[in-house]
Amino acid sequence: MFQPVVPPGGHTYHLLSGCEVASRTAGQRSPAPVDISSQERADIVIDTTTIGANTTIPSGDEILRKCEEHGVEFINLQFTDVMGIVKSVAIPIEVFPEVIENGQWFDGSSIAGFARIAESDMFLMPDLSTFAVIPWEREKNVTARVLCWVHNPNGDIFPGDPRAVLLRQLERAAKLGYKFNTGPEPEFFL
Question: Using CA atoms, how far apart are residues 161 and 32, in angstroms rounded to an integer?
Fold first, then answer.
């Protein structure tokens, strides 16, 4: 179900659905860019060329091995609300394998701007490429975090998820020939 995307300029894109990855580079046959709004279950498009190297998304088993190596006891499933404020659902490590496969349900009506009470069911799907052990929580009750995509009950990415909003805008910019570059700008003042 993967459709590799290589826009003009030949940048490498990875298309993710769950934890699987497919990629292509310039010169290989590729179909038209993916329109995430029209797909039954949207694939996520990530341009990794600006990072300097193609990255692979770790498998669920690799992440679970990391958890075991570091003695992780809890996982924070993180996402942001429409104002960009980080929200989190903490789960014990024993539940994490199930969450990797099927997501974690939560009450979307408890997040301002997400859903009304009558349509409150939503679920989080972890983006395993964002997994990290929290440095200041490595001694007692070791905790890791993973950023998540917010989904509607039918499996579509929630259009109000700020990550989905950014994804749509990056896709629009790519169709116009623009490339999004970002990086730190350290400053020092005397």
Answer: 25
